[in-house]
Amino acid sequence: MTEPKMNTESLGVWSDPFDFKVEQARTVAYAEATNDDNGRYLSGEIAPPVFAIVPVFDGMIPPLFKVVPDSLIPFVVHGEQDMVFHRPIVPGTTLTSRAKVTGFASKSSGTTVSLKLETRDESGELVNEQWMVSFFRGYQAGETVGELAPAHSFPEELRDAQPIAEVVQHVDDDQTFRYSEASGDPMPIHLDEEFAKSAGLPGIIAHGLCTMAFTSRAVIESVAAGEPTRLKRLAVRFSRPVLPGQDVTTRIWDKGDGTYAFESTSSSGDVVIKDGLAEIG
């Protein structure tokens, strides 16, 4: 059977801008849904950093499938997320975002596709930039084309060093239901036990971005003195699923110059977040 082809004509083409009104109740709900009790979030002053995914969630999918054939939808998994923060998201503002697929790379087990997002406030100032890497299992594009998401690999020389912090967080039994409502992510693998099992999973799994939000709290509390606006970049690779009821342990190493490497493991011993990178200002 002939492999479906990528539409390279749509590479590097920005989507039409799309708007999102930031409501205070939504940002507070997101903090609560990720078990983050930072006072600046719960007061509604600013949104948690990983809330940045919410304004772009609906708008990032159409540009992806202008490049990737629709027939590959069943084979996609979320591979990586990389967020660069220029200023916090403030409730009451209207954000304007756009997205584009920048490139793809064929691997032995599938193909990665890099999508870039940027979000601006009403004055046109950049609020954040994001890279999402999707992995299409078993699909061979046969080539590497365009610009790929920036690397953020874990420095192997740090493995012999003691982490400077270790943070344990619990994934509640109802975590996926609360996160789904607050984030707007209705994927059934996070909500429907039978559907998740039919997809080859052990059951309902936590949203990857909820786990990423857990790591943001671990980093901010451990190396940014609890101040969210000091977090300038957060990048992760999703490596294994997290199940409700498990603990997630995030270990953080100091790379120097305000950058930190981290990994997260579940209570089953799986490394669930690899190649974690945080930059603190």
Automatic annotation (TrEMBL):
Domain MaoC-like: start-end pairs: 162-260
Superkingdom in the source lineage: Bacteria
Domain FAS1-like dehydratase: 11-129
Transmembrane segment boundaries: none
GO terms for biological process, alphabetical: fatty acid beta-oxidation
GO molecular function: (3S)-3-hydroxyacyl-CoA dehydrogenase (NAD+) activity; 17-beta-hydroxysteroid dehydrogenase (NAD+) activity; enoyl-CoA hydratase activity
Family listed: Belongs to the enoyl-CoA hydratase/isomerase family.
Name of the protein in question: Dehydratase
